[in-house]
Amino acid sequence: MQELDWKQILIGEEKFEFLIEIALRTVIMYFIILFGLRLLGKRGIRQLSVFELVVIISLGSAAGDPMFYKEIGLLTPVVIFLIIVGAYRFTTYLTAKSEKIDDLIEGKSVYLIRAGKFNIEDFKKEALAKDEFFAELRQQSVSHLGQIETAILETSGILSVYFYPDEEVKFGLPILPDLFDRKIKLIEAADHYACSFCGKVEKIITTGKHNCKKCKNDEWLKAIDRCRVR
Q1: Cβ 200 vs Cβ 219: under 8 Å
Q2: With 80 as the cut, is the pLDDT of residue 9 above it?
Q3: Which residue in 130, 109, 112 sits closest to 181, CA to CA?
Q4: Which pTM does this prediction carry?
Q5: Where are the domains of the chain?
């Protein structure tokens, strides 16, 4: 049985002395990354947009290889850093000067809910599943859409939610998992019902099958009007 070559396993073909060089390269690249992030400004560090995330990934990629590939000199990543940071600063300058360029790069905030109902056209444009959206709302103690005046998906991906005061809460589509699973197609008793697709609430008096007046969907859930528990 062949003995394990621990030197090969631990450091490959390199000599142990190269570990010291790796440590030195890592420390140097660490401070270069800190300096690069400092040049991005406070906004770039606090909250990343899609464009800023690309910049951060690019910086990380440029910093990685020089840490352990000795054939790559440290001057190369420094030049890359300067170009990336310069491009970032130039782009932020352009977005500050032109609303069109800002919308092109950063995108626009999107209203997902208005007056307790889905803004269907805008919701379709976003790569956001209802389950994921409902989960974010539930984390803010939302149990049905009638508690929400507006919900806005910001360009950063953060969801901003504005609530009705308790005395103005309306009947709305329930989003708790056990309630949302109780979809029905046949109305058996007069009550307030919410369309499972668009969230529109209707007071349905006659029994039988009904189609939503807004989206023509035929699946309903019994609407609720409870206030948020905070």
Answers
A1: no
A2: no
A3: 130
A4: 0.63
A5: 6-104, 110-222
pLDDT per residue over 112-153, tens digit each? 999 999 988 888 777 677 888 899 999 999 999 999 999 998
The least confident of 24-33, 90-99, 148-157 is: 24-33
Residue 217: count other Cβ atoms within 10 Å of its Cβ.
16
**Distance (Å, rounded) from C-alpha 201 to C-alpha 181?**
17
In degrees and rounded to multiples of 5, residue 181 shows phi and psi of -75, -10
Other Cβ atoms within 10 Å of 117 Cβ, number: 21
Tell me the fold of 110-222.
CRO Repressor (3.30.240)
Identify the three-state secondary structure at position 222.
strand
Q: β-strand 220-222 against 110-114: which pairing, if any?
A: unpaired
DSSP of 14-31: S-THHHHHHHHHHHHHHH
Q: What is the CA radius of gyration of the chain?
A: 27
The pLDDT, as a whole number, for residue 108 is 79
- Counted residue by residue, the chain has a size of 230
| Collapsed DSSP state (helix, strand, coil) of residue 171 | coil
Read off the pLDDT band of 102 (50, 70, 90): confident
